[in-house]
Amino acid sequence: MITSDQAALLGVPSQEKKILNLLMTSKIGLTATAISDHVSEPRTTVNFYLKKLLDKGWVKKIKSPESQYPLWCLNDKSSIKNTLLGFFTLVGITPTALTTVTVKEGYEQIKDAYEKILEVGKTERVFVIQGSHSPFATIKNLPVEFIEKMHETQKQKPIILEGITSNSGLSVFDDMTMRELRSHYGRLTVVYVIPDEYLDFDAEIFIFKNSIVIIQPDTATSLVIKDENIALALKKLIEFIELYAQKVDVNSYIKELIEKAT
User: Fold this and answer.
1) Alpha-carbon distances of 191 from 97, 237, 247, rounded to whole Å
2) Residues 163 and 177 occupy one common structural domain
3) Which has the minimum average pLDDT: 11-25, 140-154, 246-260?
4) Burial of 14 (0-12, 13-18, 19+ CB in 10 A)
5) pLDDT tops 80 at residue 87
6) Rg (Cα) of the chain, in Å, rounded?
7) I want to staple 113 with a disulfide (CB 3.0 to 4.6 A). Which of 15, 154, 209, 222 is the partner?
8) Residue 1 exposed, middle or buried by CB count within 10 Å (0-12, 13-18, 19+)
């Protein structure tokens, strides 16, 4: 559920928060009239806020044989583009400012997206926002040989990875094999941890230069955006989150796991 603190942080009006929380509990969606009854708001008011949520990409309207009126439900979690454009609208970035938006599907395309990140120059910094589900999906769906090759390139250049993960995301190391731990160990990383609830999604967001690469390993979907203004906005967002997050030494954590296993 969206708490009052989260709503305030995101700038979500309380009326919209009530509607979103209600739709989270519905499996098939609700009519505007049903939503009006549940949140105790006039239907005209509910329609106004539903239109705003639709514009942000957070909800969608569908036809159903079970109802003569359209049903409203949360947008698909895999609909990265709509969610992202909704976020840009929320923080005041006009979607028409996007210079390039490319969506690709398939695990070969996912590999290409990861390799694009490795094209950054020596000692350049790549900023990362890691959804709490994505590291588990990456290990499950991508060959260990590919992950090892990617890590080796990061170490050799070297590339600095700085970003945000969750407590759950950090725990992915606990069940890794020795081979996987050694692959992850030794990369230049600056990692901050925040509660799982703020990163409850399956996506990794990489920001470097004027590019944003968003990868969903579980659904084999990648989104590449080239826009200097948006890249800068996301970097600033990460800087803000880091002020209130817990900094962790990932290499020390991995080293302890290796020592315990040997």
Assistant:
1) 30, 15, 6
2) yes
3) 11-25
4) exposed
5) no
6) 20
7) 222
8) exposed
Neighbours of 13 (CB within 10 A): 11
Q: At residue 149, what is the residue type?
A: K
Q: Which residue is associated with the tokens 């260990």?
A: 144
CA distance 153 to 143: 16
By the 10 Å C-beta count (0-12 exposed, 13-18 middle, 19+ buried), 233 is classed as: middle
Helix, strand, or coil here: 76?
A: coil
Dihedral (CA of 36, 42, 44, 45) sign: negative
Q: What's the whole-model pTM score?
A: 0.63
CATH number for position 43:
1.10.10.10
DSSP 228: H
Q: Which domain holds residue 222?
A: 80-261
> What contacts 220, CB < 8 A, 6 or more positions away?
105, 106, 107, 109, 110, 141
* Whether 234 contacts 212, CB under 8 Å: yes
Instruction: Say which range, 92-96, 105-109, 215-219, has the weakest mean pLDDT.
Output: 92-96
The values of phi and psi at residue 152, to 5°, are -65, -40
Total domains, the chain? 2
